[in-house]
Amino acid sequence: MTILSARGFDWFITxxxxxxxxxxxxxxxxxxxxxxxxxxxDPIVRDRHFGYVMGxxxxxxxxxxxxxxxxG
Amino acid sequence: xxxxAMTGAPPELAATPRSRVVSPWNPANAITAARYLTLPPxxxxxxxxxxxxxxxxxxxxxxxxxxxxxxxxVFDCKSPFGExxxxxxxxxxxxFGLVVVCAFGWAPLVPILFVVGLGLANTLMRxxxxxxxxxxxxxxxxANERLVAYFGFLIGFAxxxxxxxxxxxxxxxxxCAILVHDAKRMLVDPVPAAGGAA
Lengths: 72, 198
Description:
The complex is a heterodimer of chains A (72) and B (198). With 72 residues, chain A is mainly alpha-helical. Chain A has 2 helices and no strands. Chain B is an all-alpha fold and 198 residues long. Chain B is built from 8 helices and no strands.
């Protein structure tokens, strides 16, 4: 009982994961660039910067995972 | 969590009670509650080996998670209860999904146990943070928001059988880094004043 063909499903997951991960990477990179001038002595600002960096790392993990799946 | 990002307020202050009373029977909470309806079919799909259907149900659960924040903004019905309900629903839905994929052997046990242990450590630190603050406070962080989204995807990777080992093991160092950062914030950094800035 399937919805898509195996190949179609594989590409659907690739599109969802790759698209989300790439968008996330770019979105948090832009957020980080915009927030870089804020005062880093403020714990809230430090937390925001850290969150953006972690978001970029998670996005990168997603992009690498997709590449591994298709090239590895 | 989505609400916190949208208001632009510091995450810890997002749960600060507001003067306007919002009924818990609102569209945003209805969408959040609807997420529970995806759990029985998710279990059925996994138990019967229907990977594509299982992936669809967890995808619907994740999309509803994003839509409830949008509904709260559109219908102007954000509330501390809604935020807490959303967080609890995240934990139950994604926790249930993770347990089921693990029970049926679709996800590796070791990284899951590792992550559960770190989650318990995080819970203990939250209790210590509330004790330091001297009041009930909903600790949240920008990094944690991203972690929850990754957590949701983990179940999808397991149901789809998509690079499962890689994504599960890659999750472990991310959780460790965020735990260390949050430990400093919760146990060392000054606690923000109630209703004010940090």
